[in-house]
Amino acid sequence: MSREVGERLTEYLQLPRTRRGDYGWGRVVAALVLLTVGCAAIVGGVGTALALASTADGSPPPVVGILQVGVIGLWVAIVWLVACTLFGMRFGDLVSWRSRVRWRLLGISTAISVLGLGAYTLALAAINGSSLVPLTGAIWLAILVALILVPIQAAAEELLFRAFVPQIILAKTGVNAVKYVVVAVISSVVFASLHGAGSIGGLIMFALFGVVFATLVYFTAGVEAAIALHAVNNLLVIVGGMLTGREAKPGEVDNALSPATFAQLGVMIAIAVVIAFIERRRTGTPR
């Protein structure tokens, strides 16, 4: 990897400065504090209220779990609010160098992710001899809710960890490949620490997942592909868990350093390579 990055990625990462003009580190710190307080308030306040309300009205446990995961989707509003008020950014500035959603890239990335991770999930189920649980109305409802909320949850995490935070830091320091790698690794470690990994192995694996997502941002100059891969992975973990009676969560990694988890990471890396290759061929540029 060269020390310089592509023009499109540079343009994407410089958007806070493009919209705001030069700014000091005080504005960066203020943004990070507001993001931390806002996101923590949503998880602590809304998440707790949801848990209490769902216990009171007797909602099905699978639906409750998905709704609690979906609370993270509200982070989108926090990221957008901070980006808009402190840096004058538009929502599209968070998504790609074109300052808009590239729906074709999002669709292609989703299809490739479904094929790759779907094949991995089916193969793992066959190896483990997993069988389907009785499909009750509660499970069908939970699957529907997951299909709606989990992509928003994945988008919220990508917009925070792979978009806005790297943007405001690198627009201030200047952009090159070394700085991008440093920021990507640090943000991936923070991302991993928030996923409740119960071991060093789990922390490492979640951080590596974050690095894969950051690599997709590097080669596509936006977060659409990272959102697609992240959302498909989480959906298959959650829905697959419900269908086999595990009620898995996206923050759950069983036996983090097991062959199955390394295989999952390998599949995700392969998917990222394919997406990057297709995007390079389509646009005529590697970044």
UniProtKB/TrEMBL annotation:
Keywords: Hydrolase, Membrane, Metalloprotease, Protease, Transmembrane, Transmembrane helix. InterPro entries: Rce1/LyrA-like_dom (IPR003675). Residues 141-236 form the CAAX prenyl protease 2/Lysostaphin resistance protein A-like domain. The keyword Lipoprotein does not apply. GO terms for biological process: CAAX-box protein maturation; proteolysis. GO terms for molecular function: endopeptidase activity; metallopeptidase activity. This is CPBP family intramembrane metalloprotease. It comes from Gulosibacter macacae.
